[in-house]
Each structure stands twice: as C-alpha cells, then as structure tokens.
Amino acid sequence: QVQLVESGGGLVQAGGSLRLSCAASGRTFSGYAMGWFRQAPGKEREFVATISWSGGTTYYADSVKGRFTISRDNGKNLLYLQMNSLKPEDTAVYYCAAGSFGLRDGDYNYWGQGTQVTVSS
C-alpha cells in the first residue's frame, strides 16, 4: 500500500504560479512511477504529467507542456508539480497517483484525495 497526500492548492490569478506537493508513505516510493491528473467540474479526470521512478523520464499533456514541470525527490518521498503561467482552464482538483509509467487512470494503483486549484481571470 502507498498513501498519498496532496497539498499546495489554492486560489491564484491568471498568469500566476503554484507548486503542488504529494507526500508518499507506505511501500517504497522510488519503486513507482508517479503521475498528476486533474478533474474539472463536469468533466472526466484527465492526465497532466508523469515521471519515471528515477525521475529521468517525464511526459506532459499538450495543454500543460512548457508551463508545468513534474519532479520528485525520492529521498524525501515527495512528488511536485510546478505550475506556471496558470490559466482559468487549469482550474480543477489535482490528484497525484503512483503506479506504472503511463497516461491512463488504469496505469496507476494508488491515488491521493486531491487538492483544489482555482485560477481566476
């Protein structure tokens, strides 16, 4: 079992920045690829970014490429999502997940409870 807890969400103006964190506990954090997903009101959950177990490989959704950066600190069991140049359409609940390197919900076995990000125009 892996327990995941997100933090760092909040309200920010368009063009601003936020850094989300995901703290992991339980089984070996470094053994898992990690991902960020988001779900806006009335929409399905969508992939945002993923990072390999070593941190050496990352992949982003086109909608966030160049603005968001995923990273991890295996020594501290932490996953991050640096979000810059935020847009109102980035408003969503953001979830971190642990599992296999992939873009689909089904690639991940463990999920956090989510943190709300709201971007005002």
What does this protein structure show overall?
With 121 residues, the protein is an all-beta fold. 0% of the residues lie in helices and 54% in strands. It contains no helices and 11 strands. The protein has strands at residues 2-7, 10-13, 18-26, 33-39, 46-51, 58-60, 68-73, 78-83, 92-99, 108-111, 115-120. Strands 2, 4, 5, 6, 9, 10 and 11 form a 7-stranded mixed sheet that branches. Strands 1-3-8-7 form a 4-stranded antiparallel sheet, with no helix packed on it. The relative contact order is 0.32. The mean pLDDT is 96.
Task: Give structural attributes.
globular, single chain, about 120 residues, 7-stranded mixed sheet, about 0% helix, 11 strands, mainly beta
Task: Give a short synopsis of this structure.
With 121 residues, this protein is mainly β. The chain has strands at 2-7, 10-13, 18-26, 33-39, 46-51, 58-60, 68-73, 78-83, 92-99, 108-111, 115-120. Strands 2, 4, 5, 6, 9, 10 and 11 form a 7-stranded mixed beta sheet that branches. A 4-stranded antiparallel beta sheet has the order 1-3-8-7, with no helix packed on it.
